Amino acid sequence: MQIKKTLYLILTACLSFILFSCSSEKNEPKLTSNITDEVKKAGIELISENCSGCHIASKQGSFSRISAIRKTPEGWDMNIVRMMIFHGVEIEKSDRRKLVKYLSDTQGLAPSETAGFRDILERKHNVIEPTEDQDLMNMCARCHTYTRVALQRRDVNEWQNLVHMHLGQWASIEYHMLARERDWRADALGSVSEKLAKKYPFETEAWNEWQKTPWKDMSGEWRIIGHIAGTGDIEGTMSISKAQGNDQYKTSFTLNFPKGEKVTGGGKALVYSGYEWRGTAKLNDVKYRQIWAASSDGNSMKGRFFKKSNPEEGIEITALRKQDTVHTIMSVTPSSLATRTETEITINGINLSGDVHIEGTKITVKSQTPDRIVILATAESTPDQSSKVTIGKSTYDKAFPIYKAVDYIKITPEYGISRVGGGGGATAKVKAQFEAIGYLNGKDGVKGTKDDIRLGMVFVTWSHENFNEDAAKMQDKKYAGILTKRGTFIPAIAGPNPVRKYGTNNVGDLRIIAVYEKNGVKLTAEAHLIATVQRWNNPPIP
Amino acid sequence: MRNISVQKTIIKIVISSLIAASLFLGSFGFAKELLVVGARPDKLFIVDMKARKVLKKIIIPDSTGPQTIIPSPDGKIAYVLTNHMRQIVGIELDEGKIVFSADLDYKDDERTWNYAIAISPDGKELYSYDIPTRIHLDRYESLEPRLTVFKTDAGKDAKPDRSFAMPRRIHLMMVADSGALYAMGWDFYKVDVKTGKYETAYPLRNWKLKNLSQPDALAFWPSWDNNGIFSTPIYYARTDIPEDDMSRFRTGVLSLNLKTEKFDMIEFQAAPEILFTTVYHPDHKTAYAAYNTLLKIDLVNPKTLKRIPLEHTYYQTNISADGTEVYVGGTTCDIAVYSSKDLSKKGQVLLPGCPDMGATVMRIIHPKD
After folding, report:
1. Residue B129 CA: distances (Å) to CA of A53, A164, A181, A380, B238
2. Which domains are delineated in chain A?
């Protein structure tokens, strides 16, 4: 509370130019805010101009409701869009962008507050949300993700205000399944609001601390590694240079995609709340977006690079700043080695120097730069199944299994969703990507136990079948879409299909089958795909 | 999966509904029988079902999508809920003239959702169940629902005659021959329209039936035009049967006889099957239920007598006064006709221009000349 008050005091002081009052706060813990007085003033003016018609301004420079909630950049943008759609707010595009930036910087979430909920934020498709509390999921995660809830911070009266908005906007909320058998309104305003205020309160130590943490300069040379599900690993470099201020950057990329595909491009990025990296880039003429988070020391970033047109198609990346003092192995591709065959292995990292050693293998180095070493490796033994990769003094922090044969394979996701689209309609098809992962049974020789060893992506033959009798009757396999050689399910066109029973859309309930065959070993795995209808709106946090 | 999308469909259906008392009970074959149905965005059709002919199309001015329809007891006026569940328009069916209009958002700082409408047996009063929200400058405030009574002769800017607080989550109302108002929600309430006092007439959420879970019955469709019986599918589980045994899921028909005001609950099948509506045969010995399938149900020795697949999904079932024809409609733009005897298809009526019926209702009227 103390710090918040102080912040308000400073705001007022600087607003009314009573600088004396600013310096009179000497005894308080000093706030080294990343926001300059100028930026603050401009932010308050923006809110004043666009929002104060309804949100009452106080002398302290706060605005009713607006100043009592913290959200992610996406959360703030969705909020402003609602003001536009529901409440007729007219706001210039550039003002909207500036407001989202200002609000995220001054009332955002700390890195630790978003850490558990980044998958949905990064537009990962077909991920299962963490379920901490089934009752909260039933109450608040049946129309949208729980992430939308968990990425906001407010006190109990503001959680209640949010419930009132829901009830006023969608009266049917009390009549839905999972709601109608209870007093949804009483529960939402009561125990649920209280629980949320405890879990996700407005004021937190994490955010107070983070505001005092100076924003890092992200410019410099970076090394990137990543993975495209179903396809393979990527690696490359990224140059970041300052574009403007302490939060706007230009980027350029030189990347190697699987099968030797060279990909280059560049773009720009804006950093929100000091660590939320949001970028756009064109890679080989394909438009991509980035939703990444920087570490608090500003030396690493993690997140997703995805196609603007199809956010479900993307690359999960890790980027590390190149520093003279850092010698590190970032990735080894492939991530495991079969005995008997000589295999080309690429090791990516920063300042790699010295001898390459992988326990139990014979190695010849094909090429070597500080970024990248390509070797030919032949396993001579299977030393306890998980070996280590070392280069000079650097040891790869992941195990590098050497194996005779894959014991079993698994498909991820085990349960996927695709959505019809296209066909001249407003929404694009949403594909579903499957990937087969090879495993060893581990020491106990039993599949599915803790000591199983993940070998990494394996190449398989993909096929799909009707999930059950109902699906067979409806001929779902025939109508719902096709599965590519890379495990991508491409759904069929949107709209009622007159040749189907009941004129059903091209939806379907399917079994996805992966078959792995090597050296006479044949392994299969199955996953479940629901090919369903489109979502009519695709908000940034679904 | 299909269950999932079906649930979504159910969720999307936010319509309410009403009554036309049971004056026509026993009037088999008497006068002409007409079906009134709405369609998006602003249409009302009058259909002679026996002749398979659309007789008339009425345009509802400034309408965004008619939902429930409440015929006056004399069959001359249809009260239609429209404009996002916040306006009731009374339309004189002969000439298509607007004779009544009530804005349910009658308080300046409120926005209202209507979830049920009923009419008194003498046709003089409309009962409207509304869920209001107060719109403050920078926040919403969800308020308690209310029953608002309008006089049907109040004209085109009708103001409430009186209003009362009501329980939440009511979705269907009907009036018994006696004039008693019944409202279905968590429980079935009987409401005194003079005082606003209500009492539980039949417990649902609070039922104490042995070995039966809390039931689920979200009824929006009127079913009493030609039989004097409100009825709806009702779902519950037998808690004494293991969770992995699908036969624990039971389906029944819940009914209220609008003449005797007696409730009945008849369980007729085990295992899950989605049904949106039921309608009693005028002889009260069988009933019909629809969604993706059409069922004929024996109410005397409870069981499903026959089940046929429908050509597409239909929300509502209705029946002719002589009990020979079952009508299924809602969803798209056709009303299909089936024989009440053996469920063989007898024909269909296509609404001209194929407008979407959506979540509107089919009502059967017998206008008196």
Report:
1. 33, 19, 20, 80, 33
2. 2-211 (no CATH), 220-321 (2.40.128.120), 328-403 (2.60.40.10), 408-532 (2.60.40.10)
| CATH code of B253's domain | 2.130.10.10
Q: Which helix (H) or strand (E) segment is A261 a member of?
A: strand A261-272
Mark yes or no for CB contact A185/B7 under 8 Å: no
Mean pLDDT of B79-104: 95
Q: Which domain holds residue B217?
A: 209-350
> A47, A158, A174: best mutation site toward chain B, by most B Cβ within 10 Å?
A174
The helices-and-strands tally (H runs, E runs) of chain B is 1, 28
Residues B135, B153: Cα–Cα separation, whole Å: 30
Return the residue in B113, B142, B205, B218 with the most chain A beta carbons within 10 A, the one to mutate for interface testing: B142
**Does B214 sit within 8 Å of A502, measured CB to CB?**
no
Q: What is the pLDDT of residues A67-88, one digit of tens each?
A: 999 999 999 999 999 999 999 9
Pairing outcome for strands A276-283 and A261-272: antiparallel
Judge if B240 and B303 occupy the same domain: yes
- Gap between the Cα atoms of A82 and A93, Å rounded: 14
Angle between the A37-51 and A93-106 helix axes, to the nearest 10 degrees?
120
The secondary structure of residue B75, as a DSSP letter, is S
Are B184 and B166 in contact by the 8 Å Cβ rule? The answer is no
pTM of the model: 0.90
For residue B134, what is the nearest residue in chain A, using CA coordinates? A168
B192 shares its domain with B251: no
What would the pLDDT profile of A332-363 be if each residue is shown by its tens digit? 999 999 988 899 999 999 999 999 999 889 99
- The answer to whether the Cα torsion of A30, A33, A38, A39 is positive or negative is negative
Identify the closest residue of chain B to A65 by CA–CA distance. Answer: B138
Q: Is A177–B10 a contact, with Cβ atoms under 8 angstroms apart?
A: yes
Can you tell me the ipTM of this complex?
0.89
- The answer to whether B24 and B36 are in contact (CB under 8 A) is no
Nearest to B128 by CA among B158, B155, B98, B99: B158
Q: How far is B225 from chain A (nearest CA, A)?
A: 25
Residues in B closer than 8 angstroms to A467, CB to CB, are 1
